[in-house]
Specification:
This protein has three domains: 84 residues, Uridine Diphospho-n-acetylenolpyruvylglucosamine Reductase, domain 2 (2-Layer Sandwich); 130 residues, Uridine Diphospho-n-acetylenolpyruvylglucosamine Reductase, domain 3; 83 residues, UDP-N-acetylenolpyruvoylglucosamine reductase, C-terminal domain (Uridine Diphospho-n-acetylenolpyruvylglucosamine Reductase, domain 1), CATH 3.90.78.10. Strand 16 and strand 17 form a beta hairpin. The strands form five sheets. Strands 6, 7, 8, 11, 12 and 13 form a six-stranded antiparallel β-sheet that branches. The chain has a four-stranded mixed β-sheet with strand order 1-2-5-3. Strands 14-17-16-15 form a four-stranded antiparallel β-sheet. It is 31% helix and 27% strand. The chain is α+β, with helices and mostly antiparallel strands. It is globular. Helix 1 runs antiparallel to helix 2. It is built from nine helices and 18 strands. It binds flavin-adenine dinucleotide (FAD). Flavin-adenine dinucleotide binds next to strand 3, helix 4, strand 9, strand 13 and strand 14.
């Protein structure tokens, strides 16, 4: 990117919210990825709209991310601007209507913090989401889900922006949620904020359910090592982890990337893994699982910069 283009982005988000040559290994839970030319963190909707206009008018490549918990960035990084929507754009507002809790969260709100705010206000039904280590923006886009719950069950509407800068309010049905996809992923939209509608419940019961799911995660998932969560989508009628285990791949490694011993559905970075290691490993997993079971695995993790 040219100095003038970088200056233009800096004028929109402010110097302290922009990084050049930003190592993406510091912005992803996989701890993998080369530098992005520019990484910026807008603090409001107006800045996001100005950024999109600047990208359009100057033909700058861009990518929106949240907490980087479902991302594999290439070792070469990204030539363009990565827009990170996290705590600077993560306000949460709560209102009670009758026996419902209405929660509006900006895209960068972390799922855990959102879950804790909902708990404080006795909202029930979001317990499944509290342990997902992403933002609400990323979760709505992917229709993230766990333990029988999905974002589609709780999101009533979302405010999104099109790449050409039009703001649309999409209802739950217009969001067209499917398994780990939505209208947002299909159409390249950007989530600005989302509204959740929840029933009111008993705080103790809600907390007990969160504690139960947190304990389950700790027991089953390798949370102490870098990863991007479940590497593959669940193939219809199967579990990716079981297929990988049955193919004898638990603990199988290429370079620093390894199939977790604790949960075969997770590829982990056991130290110094490159994106090339992860790609080589996931390709080999796909090949061997197909050979062993005839089932084709598909990546759930999103790739950037390849
Ligand atoms: C230990 C661990 C456990 C996990 N458990 C689960 C689980 O139980 N269930 C589950 O579904 N996932 C799980 N994940 C994966 C991940 O947390 C989710 O997919 C999460 O929704 C990603 O959110 P993010 O903000 O980190 O998105 P990122 O990783 O930053 O981005 C992922 C994708 O979302 C897009 N995106 C991000 N923000 C926006 C936005 N505002 N508008 C439009 N698009 C956007 C990006 O462009 C990218 O394509 C887990 C991950 C880890 C590391």
């Amino acid at each position: 990117m040219t100095e003038a283009e970088i200056k233009l982005i800096e004028e929109i988000v402010g110097e302290s919210h922009l990084q050049t040559d930003a190592p993406m290994s510091e912005h992803t839970t996989f701890k993998i990825g080369g530098p992005a030319d520019v990484l910026c963190m807008p603090q409001n909707k107006e800045q996001i709209l100005k950024l999109l206009k600047a990208f359009r008018e100057n033909d700058i490549d861009y990518f929106f991310m949240g907490n980087g918990s479902n991302l594999l960035v290439s070792d070469e990084g990204f030539r363009g601007v990565i827009v990170k929507l996290l705590d600077d754009f993560g306000k949460v507002n709560v209102a009670q209507h009758g026996n419902h809790l209405i929660v509006n969260a900006q895209a960068g709100a972390r799922m855990w913090r959102l879950g804790m705010t909902i708990l404080e206000n006795n909202g029930a039904g979001f317990e499944f989401g509290t342990g997902i280590p992403g933002t609400i923006g990323g979760a709505v886009m992917m229709n993230a889900g766990a333990y029988g719950g999905e974002m589609k069950d709780v999101v009533s509407e979302a405010s999104v922006v099109t790449p050409d800068g039009r703001i649309l309010e999409l209802s739950n049905s217009a969001l067209d949620f499917g398994y780990r996809r939505s209208a947002i992923s299909d159409k390249g939209l950007i989530v600005l904020d989302a509204t959740l509608e929840l029933e009111l419940g008993e705080k103790d019961e809600i907390k007990a359910r969160i504690d139960e799911l947190t304990a389950k995660r700790k027991l089953k998932q390798p949370l102490d090592v870098p990863s991007a969560g479940s590497t593959f989508k669940r193939p219809p009628g199967y579990y990716a982890a079981a297929l990988i285990e049955e193919a004898g791949l638990k603990g199988f490694a290429i370079g620093g990337a390894c199939v977790s011993e604790k949960h075969a559905g997770f590829v982990i970075n056991q130290g110094g893994a490159t994106a090339a290691d992860v790609v080589a490993l996931t390709d080999e997993i796909k090949r061997r699982v197909f050979e062993n079971s005839g089932v084709k695995l598909e990546l759930e993790v999103r790739k950037l910069g390849f």
